[in-house]
Write a structure and sequence with these properties.
Length: 217
């Protein structure tokens, strides 16, 4: 485990820009931490209640982003997060999972094997010290780190009241781009995406829609 304080040169530069950045980060990785945080990154997030459509579009956009050299950031949750991490690894990319607990705990427990692969090809990151319990209130707190580490946030599927929408709100407040993949209007897991599009999120159907909004690409 590596502990990085806000004053350290290796502290993620994008995260340092946000309001109230974590004073310390705890990181589990087997790769060069300088490479990890100086490579462009995009968050790919969404509902735990993933549909077949959500799985398909998450795999598609994640694969395209990895091919363009992006690190994929997500939250290790069931559903969209899991598929985003899994696809990034399958495509030979790097991925960062932001946890809402200490590094000695993996939530959900069935993602332990995925977490082990992420350590070898990316990192587990948290602001919570070892032995921090898994509690509901920790997850909205960690969501600001998901968006803070990223140049933008891609929402694949989301209900209107969800943690994903909290992350999208953090992203907007942090000056990050918010991207939304449209879904069927009859699907509850598309209601949040539709709401974001009405508020001005960038509609995304392929990676070029994302790249044209990133000035540094």
């Amino acid at each position: 485990m590596i502990t990085v304080s806000l004053e350290d040169k290796i502290y993620p530069p994008l995260l340092k820009e946000i309001q109230s950045p974590p004073k310390r980060l705890y990181i589990n990785t087997k790769i060069d931490i300088n490479k990890l945080f100086k490579t462009k990154a995009i968050a790919v997030i969404g509902t735990r209640n993933i549909t077949a459509y959500g799985r398909q579009v998450t795999q598609k956009i994640t694969k395209e982003l990895v091919k363009r050299g992006f690190i994929i950031v997500s939250g290790l949750a069931r559903g969209i997060d899991y598929i985003a991490h899994q696809t990034a690894l399958k495509e030979g990319g790097l991925t960062i999972a932001v946890l809402g607990c200490g590094l000695d705990r993996i939530y959900p427990a069935e993602h332990a094997r995925l977490a082990a692969e992420i350590i070898k090809n990316g990192a587990l990151v948290t602001e919570f010290p070892l032995h921090t319990q898994i509690t509901r209130q920790n997850f909205p707190i960690r969501n600001r780190i998901i968006s803070g580490l990223s140049q933008g946030v891609v929402i694949c599927e989301a209900a209107e009241k969800s943690g994903t929408m909290i992350t999208a709100s953090f992203a907007a407040d942090q000056g990050r781009e918010v991207f939304a993949i449209p879904g069927p209007i009859t699907s509850p897991t598309s209601s949040g995406v539709s709401a974001l599009l009405k508020k001005g999120a960038k509609l995304v159907t392929n990676v070029d829609d994302i790249l044209e909004e990133l000035p540094d690409y």
